[in-house]
Amino acid sequence: MSNEQQQEYERQQEYARQQEYARQQYEQQYWQQQASQASQVPHVQESQESFPRQSGQPQPGYQQSTQQPTQPHPGHPGAWQQQYPPYSAPQAPADEPESDADYYVPHYTVLAPEPEPEPGYVLPEVPVSAWSVDNSRSAWISRGVLVLILLVQAGLSFRLDGSAFPQEAKFLLSDGTFSGPLADLGLTGVRTLSLAWALGATALLFGATRLLFNARAGLAAAAMYSVLQSTAFTGRYASLHSLSLFLLAAALWLLARTRQSSPAAVLVATPFAALAPFAAYSAALYLPSLTVLAVLTAYRFRGAGAFVRGAFFAAATGVLCFVGVQLNGTPGGWNVHDTDSATSLLKESAEWGGVVLLVAVIGAVGFARRARMGEMPWSESSAPGTVRRSALGLTMCATALLAPLYQAYLGNGSSLHIHVGFGLLFAVPMAGLGISRMMGAHFRYPQIGIMLYVAALVVGMAQTQELYRPPDSAAMIGALREVADGKGSYLTDEPEISAYYLRAKTDPGQWHRAGRGAALTSAVKKGSYDAIVLRAASVPDVLRGNAHYRLLAVLRPADKDSAGGRAPYRIWVKQ
Fold first, then answer.
1. Is residue 515 within 8 Å of residue 536, measured between CB atoms?
2. Cα 551 to Cα 570: distance, rounded to the nearest angstrom
3. Which stretches within 68-135 are classed as H helix?
4. pTM of whole model > 0.70?
5. Are 32 and 75 in contact (CB under 8 A)?
6. For 112-142, how does the pLDDT look when each residue is reduced to its tens digit (9 = 90+)?
7. Torsions phi, psi of 553, nearest 5?
């Protein structure tokens, strides 16, 4: 209640008390006058007869009975209260001003005092880009949806099968720091472990996106990432690429998790970031992006202290990488030049990740324009600044271009279809935010999210089926089992595959890679190899009618491989 209302209420109460006091004085005088007149009347009955009696109604103050009613004492107030009508203030004529204020009863409304407001429900801090608020129910729903997304991802990877790729066989034969302990698991075991790492990376990506934005954007990001061809491919590829992705995702999640903590808390993310390049050399391209994100994720909460956090992360990661190089050497393959066309590499990269990057750009632009959705205008003041939002969106989207641009510069397309997924790991959170914004508040347009997910699923399945084509080497290995032994020397296009599958009978050093042209001609003329295995559409001229070698078998691939341009295996043995 305001002060003016309180004063008006007090004035009205005081005026009412004055009116009540005047009425009581009037009644007291009236009863005294009536008592004095009644004392002069011989019988009370006569005084009662002065008032007209209505037919069929009992006399006021008396009980209906056959006996004589008991008459109260004339001076008793209760008797007169029963016989006379209640007091009512006389009304002044309309054409005359009010002469006596004592007989005026004003018409007014008594305002009751407002009750004290009860403590209401306090809303928790709202995520920076959505209408939703996390609670226990929504958390369990999000986890259930995430499990379904991971099951779809596992199914997309398990549908891929076949013999070992040359790089897989090479990995399983190596005795490196990481690959050595895994070689005993075999091809199936390492592929299963790769799937576990890939699923863990998707789960960590969901957690990082939920912390940076909200749960709905996290689910959209996980859904888009789970159906990419690079995700399905690495989940069924016996290598350390999926482990490197898991380490990068863990570092990103820890950066988001510790964004409100002290700058020193960022050190928990440095071991994961430093180990990632030693699992797959392409992860080294993304360490600068992690350093920038260490600053941007904490700037809203720490201000200038976020730069201290970034310095801690960069220094600790650099020290750990230096120690790793001293102990394990520099990861190979990261700066090898080749003759691949830069234009074709960029075109293929756009095919593999262009849709996700486009949605990520839409999300970054929307995030830069408005931190939260339109139904929460009251929370805009607590949102991160426009500059920070723009820098965060630009960093995450630009990171997706690092691998394509670097490998286009080198002219080396080796494993580019896998390396594209490393950059998309950083861009997908913005893509999830973009999908969340396009669907609108309270899932106003869910068909947009469903359409994008189905499109990404179909494209990812088609691309994975095209790229995941392991060599159909089972028939070739079966033929070589009858020829190879532990003493001979063998020339083949894929020495890693033969060495892996025949490791029980031969030593990896017995297998040599075959060249073409003059190199092959020189090797055949020397006659130093006990068997030659080539995969070519036609017989090389040097082996036509050669006196030292005879054709043992021609092993054609399955129909689906033949339609895709796979050449048959031809095996020559020394005569």
1. no
2. 7
3. 77-83
4. yes
5. no
6. 666 666 666 665 555 544 445 556 777 888 8
7. -160, 150
